[in-house]
Amino acid sequence: MSHDPGRADPPADPAGTGGGTGDGSTGQEPARGAMPAVDTRLLVREEGIRGYVGEFRRKLRSGELGSLPVVLAVIIIWTVFGSLNSTFLSAQNLSDLSQQIVGTGMIAVGIVFVLLLGEIDLSVGSVSGLCAAIFAVLNVLNGMNEWLALLVAIAGGAVVGLIQGFFFAKVGVPAFVVTLAGNLAWNGLMLQVLGTSGTVNIPSESIVSRLYSTIYHSPAAAYGTAAAGVALFLAASLLDARRRRAARVPSRPVAEIVLRTVVIAALAFAAAYILNQYQGLPLALLIFLILLVLLDFVLRRTTYGRRIFAVGGNIEGARRAGISVPFVRMSVFSIAGTMAAIGGIFLAGQIQSASQTSGGGNLLMNVIAAAVIGGTSLFGGRGSVWSALLGALVIGSIQSGMNIMGVSNAVQFMITGSVLLAAVVVDSLSRRSQKAAGRA
Known about the structure:
Blueprint: H1 40-46, H2 49-61, H3 68-84, H4 91-116, H5 124-141, H6 146-171, H7 175-194, E1 199-201, H8 207-213, E2 215-216, H9 219-246, H10 254-278, E3 281-282, H11 283-301, H12 303-313, H13 315-320, H14 325-351, E4 353-355, H15 363-373, H16 386-405, H17 409-436
Helix pairs in contact: 1-2, 3-16, 4-10, 4-11, 4-14, 4-15, 4-16, 5-6, 5-7, 5-14, 6-7, 6-14, 8-14, 9-10, 11-12, 12-14, 15-16, 15-17
């Protein structure tokens, strides 16, 4: 079992360093006369830098790679394309990239939730197109208030996910079959909603278009967002350490928290600087980051989040612990449908239209690839919503770099597929190493 629902959750990690939420302690005092278990992290911290280096080596040997492979992948991709064409690392291209990955990243977040259960959702592409079509038809063709149309479209995604979750959790139809059928059915419903015209153009002044295209040009917006994110991370880390000390369980020392905060601050302000070198902070990126923080809190800090990890790690153990497995499954598929709807709305705002091709093409493969490449395990019980951001960044970087180099779509598909296969191989080898080390 890769996750214990009874364990306390660690501090939130914006870098998306991987799955699980436990710290290995129940918070209970050992029975009198019993030998208390020694937390290896206490020994590591007593040894200082040498201890951390040794712990890092042990994690590599046991297959606990976290976000290391995807971070290295981003560095390699940016280095290669940057050396081939300086335009790739320009502020304009990186700023455009930060906007372009939002739609895919939103849908990938929903896929992360499903993968944590060890399942798959093949319908998210069609659901995203359907919800974009619902908004366009209600608002543009029928004159419904744009905010109401937006809420109806997002609610539609939640209902679609709930329906699929019902057939999976209650009826017992495999998720693969349910969502494959949904992929066809929701695509057909989208065509029906669009009608004979097949395409509905969304005005540039529409809320959907503005959600994607709005950019805050003031440098204070980007730097302020970076500062707020760093402050939130520091406060959460300090509060978590104090809570753990009060419960007499291992906690991060202040020096380590400060070091981690400095690293996060360097990355955040570097990103803000790059954005300000072009136009500023895109609203789409800001919304994406806010949703990631909120959903990360749900997964890592709530009982519901722990139950998702528990069901994905060991379904029978979750049942015996009193967790309602059907509820967790249905709610997770509803979340996936909701995020597909939101992602579809942003994709529609990007091209300012909803058409018969919405949600089609290689969108489904890209969102699944983003979740897996970002570090979420296909075997369930291990992953993070930040995987969606990292994976979407890898996919988006590859596509952006190859577009700049003039590489054909055929080659792009082959390279993206190879990267996805490599991510799955790393996940499989990591899981095998953890089993061999007795940690899975």
